[in-house]
Amino acid sequence: MKFEDYQPYLSPALAKATDLIAISGKGCYLTDSKGDRYLDFVQGIAVNALGHCHPKVVEAIKTQAGKLITASFNVVNYPTTLELAKRLAEVTPGELNSVFFSNGGAEAIDGALKLAKAYTKRPAIIAFQGSFHGRSFGALSVTGSNAYYRKYYEPMVGSVYFTAYPSTDLCPKGFNEEQRTEYCLNELDRLFQNLVAPDQVAAIIMEPVQGEGGYVVPSKAFVQEIRERCDQYGILLIMDEIQSGYGRTGKMFASEHFDVVPDIMTVGKAIAGGLPMSAVISTQVIMAEWRSGMHGTTFGGNPICAAAALAVLDEFKQSCLLEHVNEEGAYLRNRLVRLQKKYSCISDVRGLGLMLAIEFSHPDGSPAGDLLEAVRAACLKNRLLTLSCGVHHNGMRFATPLNVTNDEIDQGIAIIESVLDQLYAQ
Q1: Distance of alpha carbon 82 from its chain centroid, rounded?
Q2: 166: which DSSP letter?
Q3: Contact yes or no for 43/400 (Cβ under 8 A)
């Protein structure tokens, strides 16, 4: 089987990172149609929290599929989905205990935006430069990481305003963390003064750690000041935890690192062990304004997805997964810092837990997206799957399973090291 034989039947809109045809997966590894085995540091773009085909997830799927596949959560209730809503409420921060299930990240973002407008009765949304929230019209309208995503689609959803995120790529050159924080807060205040009055803003939506934007971690002061401004003006704070949540940063949700509880939170990706599932989570007070019929879904809350999601939560508890993420995150960071010291082209190591990235730069400090792509191509030839990030497309992000081992990390780092040695020898 060759991908090119089937390519004419597939829309080119879906960008393909490789032409691999994956046949099977187990843990940290994928096997393709040629029988070649790849170390997978992408994991469905941070989807497989427990790696490929975790036995407990597989068993949960099989058991539920033998009972009921779907009857629409609009029409009937499912034991697995009801239990999942309760279990989610036990691990979410604050009073975020009312759940609307959907199917993917962009769909959850659209739902969160609708919920914020329904509750506040206000028209405007503020989002951040460098953000990525998805490619549906609503999610794309609050995405600020790549103008290409928006090409030909204007006008987008109206009354969306963008402000600066405290990334080195998006702030004046040479600013330290404190200066970036002050600069971005001043930009937000100027937005309120010059473009949109605070009493017209329904929500500020942010990734507590930007994903596609480069795995950028803001200062605690910045996130807390955003929370304070929301409280001051009656604006809802939406935290997009679709990539950063579910243990990826070493806490169940990344917002916990900043001691901030949002009003609305979106989760997805890792929630159901590889199956398509997401959720909008808020307080019962806010959800009460989302009256019957104001939002809906045919497939959201699917009982098989919910069964898999329960197995994931069980594994979090039984395997002390958050502790493991912090241990392995520290180990991976140490290995990446050692790479940075050895290779001058690696200009930064950043992130939290197992949400880590390295950045490639040229000797003059300019973004080295060309070098990153050469490294990624060579890694693929050496049977390592990698993923890019960053507004300048010069970052490599690591999305290993949360139960990754030292040996698997060492294997991946050894491949990257050998690739860099080869490139520098040329």
Answers
A1: 25
A2: S
A3: yes
